[in-house]
Amino acid sequence: MDLPQELKAIDEIRQLKSRYFRFVDTKDWQQLAMVFCRDAIFDTRQASGLASTADDENYVARGRDAIVAYISQSLQGSSSVHHGHGHEVHIDSADEAHGIVAMEDLVKWEAPRRASLHGYGHYHELYRVEDGAWRLWRSTLTRLRVETDLDMGGTG
To answer: For 62-117, what is each residue's pLDDT tens digit?
Structure first.
């Protein structure tokens, strides 16, 4: 892959992650599904900062449909703002890449009870070309700091 192709791939991956944040916050679940590979894995075991979730497979969604169901259920009754910063993207081959995206999220639930979460951390990701487009293949959310009045789980 030459430099112009590599720069194009990096830009496409950055835009992919930007769409992820927008689709989550606008609750556009159909479009969110298209961000992920069919066999993607979304891992939030390290998102709460609690050791009790470290080995809990309930915080890992496997497959595009399961990931969208997991995120939509986690954010049900909420409004959210997700921001990604400082995308570090490395192209490994013409159809695979990896990267880290710093993140901040603010989620406020009105139902079933009022609650909020403000988190800071990183997405550690693998990307792959599928059906001619870059998509998220593996995404692991780690939070460095969480301010919340929730009994923490793995919100995305």
So the answer is: 999 999 999 999 999 999 999 999 999 999 999 999 999 999 999 999 977 789 99
Q: How many CA atoms lie within 13 A of 65 on its CB side?
A: 0
Domain assignment present for residue 155? The answer is: no
CATH of the domain at 130: 3.10.450.50
Position 114 in a domain: yes
The reported pTM is 0.91
Residue 132, domain member (yes or no): yes
pLDDT digits (tens, 9 = 90+) for 123-147: 999 999 999 999 999 999 999 999 9
Whether 42 is covered by a domain: the verdict is: yes
Domain that holds residue 75: 3-148
